[in-house]
Amino acid sequence: MVEKKAWAINGYLGIILILALFIGGIALVIQKILVGIPLILLAIILATGVLVVQPNKSYALVFFGSYLGTVREPGLWLSVPLAIRKGVSLRVRNFNSKTLKVNDIEGNPVEIAAVIVFRVIDTAKAIFDVEKYEEFVEIQSETALRHIATRYAYDDFEGKGFSLRGNPDEVSNELMNELQQRLDLAGVEISEARLTHLAYATEIAGAMLQRQQASAILSARQIIVEGAVGMVQMAIARIENDGVVDLDEERKAAMINNLLVSIVSERATQPVINAGTMY
Fold first, then answer.
1. Using CA atoms, how far apart are residues 109 and 201, in angstroms rounded to an integer?
2. For every one of its 279 residues, what pLDDT tens digit does the chain have, with 9 covering 90 and above?
3. Phi, psi of 233 (to 5 degrees)
4. Domain range list for the chain
């Protein structure tokens, strides 16, 4: 069902009309003119159509089971008498999902939660197309969050693709797009969707922490080794160019070995003084 505008006129003019009918009807009744009774009844019936709309609030009007339309402009209005009014807030609201335990694409159990910012943009859909749109938003948000979490790994150790931890903006955008598709049915617009909690489940948190630490150590070692090789190459080239000493292949290999051990080692190296020669 699509929202449409309901019939309504300025409420102040409506109240003046109702008072005129009511006072005129009483005056006619006092004069024992029977026409005054229908005027009084008409005034009472019209009074049921007086409607006060607060800012960021809308009312859907239902008349004997038929949807007549929605009044969403703030102010005092006179609308269809005897109609049932169903109000919906149009304000922006936050929804914090529960912390869910799901398996990522690699089968690792992770804990994940998100905050959803939304508002109603179609009153008719929010009231008539779903049972309770607040519960609908909650359930669909958790369903979409579970679906997104199962499509990515928690972390990409090889750096070849997206991950929940490494690409939070991309994951949030995909979550927002999927939520919008799910909630169009309820006339709800998603303004923002952000992950608020992301962690490995307790049962594997320790093992995954060791894996992350090992990966960090390997990356650091790789940088150190690459830097050490560059320094050794520069040192040997400088010695050969300046003619400091003539190095044969065996001496060059020994120097490379000593320099690499000295640079790469985590502890300070202890020099060994050789008083003789290598031969």
1. 5
2. 888 999 999 999 999 999 999 999 999 888 878 888 999 999 999 999 999 999 999 999 999 989 999 999 999 999 999 999 999 999 999 989 899 999 888 888 889 999 999 999 999 999 999 999 999 999 999 999 999 999 988 887 666 678 888 888 899 999 999 999 999 999 999 999 999 998 887 765 555 566 566 566 666 667 777 776 777 777 777 777 766 666 666 766 776 776 666 666 665 555 555 545 555
3. -60, -40
4. 8-88, 93-200, 208-264
CA–CA gap between residue 58 and residue 87 (Å, rounded)? 6
CA distance 166 to 156: 7
Q: Which two tokens stand for residue 54?
A: 């607060």
Non-local (6+) Cβ contacts of 29 within 8 A are 36, 37, 40
Q: Tell me the longest C-alpha to C-alpha distance in the chain.
A: 140
CATH number of 93-200: 3.30.479.30
